[in-house]
Amino acid sequence: MSSGNDQQSEALSKPTFSEEQASALAESVFGLKVSKVQPLPSYDDQNFHVYVSKTKDGPTEYVLKISNTKASKNPDRIEVQNDIIMFLKAAGFPTSSVCRAKGDNTASLVSVDSGSEIKSYLVRLLTYLPGRPIAEIPISPQLLYEIGKLAAKLDKTLQKFHHPKLSSLHRKNFIWNLKNVPLLEKYLYVLGQNRNREIVEHVIHLFKEEVMTKLSHFRECINHGDLNDHNILIESSKSASGNAEYQVSGILDFDDMSYGYYVFELAITIMYMMIESKNPIQVGGHVLAGFESITPLTAVEKGALFLLVCSRFCQSLVMAAYSCQLYPENKDYFMVTAKTGWKHLQQMFDMGQKAVEEIWFETAKSYESGISM
């Protein structure tokens, strides 16, 4: 994405299939007998919840994913994403099953005549995962710990994943890779002139000075890259005491996968778990403790964590504001993070790194002694 115009052309390539067209795709490409189709929210692709007539065996609900035209030009990356989803499922993670098209491929290229040009879209079908987004419940410290643990386990498991097209996950100018925080400078105009912009500019400056210079000291891995509170599903069960206990029942949306670092995954997860929390600053310590139970951070990684969490807030908030300009009709979806995100970023900025780190590290340390805060 070499310019704002490049980003705009990518955003404007978002598919615009109707429910009837989506139903027809599910039937013609995947051979389903569709009974109902409903749109699902998506950032720059298009997703549909597909219901099929009951069968003797097999699922009755699916997600039809239609990639935007830019993503559709990289079938290798989508193939790798599909294979990773299947690999993680085989390793015991709660991911969807990837369905095969009539030609036995896991993705199919569909061409559509838009009148002025013919556009091509990659279409996939996944099984629908039950459960509620974690955004809908108050998240307990124990659940935050388990989510941190899950993030570390996922990245560690992917170290064993091999694929001839794995290099497709080296996404040099991908705006959502934390390494690319400086690319946000092209979109700052959407914020106007205010304190929010000043904070973002300061974070970018610190990122260049304090993170870019240390990347070679971080341990590399493949990142899910988007473990947000709508991409983690939970289901409840009753504990012996009769209270509801929640377990992770699903991990969604592998479209932002790319090569990054263990500490990137942790920072992204902390940031998104803060969004709906009534005590956002406390969140980081519990997620950190869970993560470090699998993958302890090095001193250099730990020292960068605060700035990386701030940087992810900046990515999410700036790109949401930009996307709202392109798609004002989807403003409610894009601005989910912004409802509390600016407030949380300002609070972190006002408290400062030392004060926030003290809370995070003391909370994480309390787990070692068996007395979680």
TrEMBL record:
It is an enzyme of class 2 (transferase). Its EC number is 2.7.1.81. It comes from the Eukaryota. One of its GO terms (cellular component) is cytoplasm. Keywords: Cytoplasm, Kinase, Transferase. The keyword Cell membrane does not apply. It catalyses: (5R)-5-hydroxy-L-lysine + GTP = (5R)-5-phosphooxy-L-lysine + GDP + H(+). Residues 39-280 form the Aminoglycoside phosphotransferase domain. It is found in: Cytoplasm. The keyword Hydrolase does not apply. It holds the Pfam family APH. GO terms for molecular function: hydroxylysine kinase activity. PANTHER family: AMINOGLYCOSIDE PHOSPHOTRANSFERASE DOMAIN-CONTAINING PROTEIN-RELATED, HYDROXYLYSINE KINASE. Belongs to the aminoglycoside phosphotransferase family. Catalyzes the GTP-dependent phosphorylation of 5-hydroxy-L-lysine. This is Hydroxylysine kinase.
